[in-house]
Amino acid sequence: MSNRNSNNKVLLIYTGGTIGMVQDENGALQPFAMERIYDALPLLHRTNYHIDSCQLDKIIDSSNMTPEFWVDIATIIERNYDNYDGFVVLHGTDTMAYTASALSFMFKNLTKPIVLTGSQLPLGMLRSDGRENIICALEIASAQHVLIPEVTIFFESHLYRGNRSTKVSAENFDAFSSFNYPSLAKAGIKISYRRNLFLPLPNGKLRVRKKFDPRIAVLKLFPGITPAVVNSIVSIPDLQGLIIETFGSGNAPTEPWFINELQHALEKGIIILNVTQCKAGAVQMRQYQASCDMDRIGVIGGHDITIEAAVTKMMYLLGNFPSDKEKVRDRLAKCLRGEISLEINDELDDF
Ligand code: ASP
Q1: CA–centroid distance, residue 62 to ligand 1 (Å)
Q2: Atom 7 (ligand 1) nearest CA
């Protein structure tokens, strides 16, 4: 490969997912151990950058992903941070966008690439998309002529900002999309980087925060939603945060019972974030009357955040600032790691 430097070192971290799966006797896909990745892809031994590999203690189908696994992945990267030029995380596609978002919030002042990738077909299969995905992800993570100081997802020729990505297909090879931010690079004959889209290289010291508070809920609105459904969610004991997936540019029923339920939840200290169900575009509170009441009572507008980034950002902020709800509210409305289309709040050092 061109532009390689034999001194460049990448750590390949296997967490599970289709990319490393085999079929059991009933034909169901199950994860297998890391050494099999080298069997399936002997080319990995021939790259002229150095690859070390490791795997989580427990490799999983990413449907079993939890904040504890995010912490495990972050801990491996943190412990090895000074010894490698970049990191590639092999991950199941189902929740890859959540993990990429979670890692993006955990790593403040990141100066090295963390690239997540996976595949739709197991690496051992002839038509697997995993080979190209892994090789491109490794090339990007080890590149010497370009440095992407971000958590990203590489999938089917595109490199996306992790906290802008969403899984959009359960069958196509181009399984991911980033509707509200362009891709950072495109792999053709060569990999073309769009440097003007990267996050700026930070000056501060790397800081890794590993706390998450999972006591949140997501309420997806639909026409005909009943008071019983909304009430049962806002009555969850100990609920700290609620994301409402609203219509269009952040609209919801204007019925008094609905606003009263939300107001009651806010009075109990539950933080509420308004995220649109639309894949592209942003919440604009007060654009329609159907969001004015929510704005008035203190529901926070999520701008153009993905649901994956909203869930992980809320868990992250609640976990790290448990006694400062005002700070959580304030930071939810701000851009921390390029996850929403507002200027990044770099001067705020405490998140
Ligand atoms: N269920 C798998 C997972 O997310 C699917 C995949 O890897 O594509 O772990």
Answers
A1: 6
A2: 92
The C-alpha atoms of residue 138 and residue 86 are separated, in whole angstroms, by: 8
**What pLDDT, in 10s, does the model give residues 3-51?**
344 579 999 999 999 988 776 778 777 666 666 667 777 887 888 788 9
pLDDT, tens only, 160-210: 999 999 999 999 999 999 999 999 999 999 999 999 999 999 999 999 999
Last residue of a domain, one of 208, 238, 257: 208
* Backbone φ and ψ of 327, nearest 5°: -65, -40
User: Residue 104 to residues 97, 145, 240, 273: CA-CA distances in angstroms?
Assistant: 10, 23, 22, 19
Residue 154 contacts residue 134 (beta carbons within 8 Å): no
> Are 58 and 177 contained in the same domain?
yes
Of all protein residues, the one whose alpha carbon is nearest to atom 8 of ligand 1 is 93
CATH of the domain at 178: 3.40.50.1170
Residue 221 belongs to domain spanning: 216-349
Ligand 1 atom showing the smallest separation from residue 19 Cα: 7
Question: Nearest to residue 119, comparing CAs of 99, 104, 135?
Answer: 135
Sign, CA dihedral 77-167-313-139, equals positive
Q: Which atom of ligand 1 is nearest to the CA of 16?
A: 9
**pTM of this structure:** 0.94
- pLDDT at position 343, please? 78
CB 165 within 8 A of CB 306: yes
Q: Would you please indicate which residues are annotated as catalytic (active-site) residues?
A: 18
State how far the alpha carbon of 182 is from the alpha carbons of 94, 160, 165, 177, 301, in Å: 21, 7, 10, 9, 22
List residues near ligand 1 (CB under 6 A): 16-18, 61-63, 92-94, 118, 120
CA of 68 to the centre of ligand 1 (A): 18
Alpha helix positions (H), the chain? 35-40, 67-80, 96-106, 130-142, 227-234, 256-267, 289-297, 307-320, 325-332
Instruction: Name the average pLDDT for the chain.
Output: 92
Which domain-ending residue is among 165, 191, 208? Answer: 208
The closest of 334, 326, 254, 267 to 294, measured between CA atoms, is 254
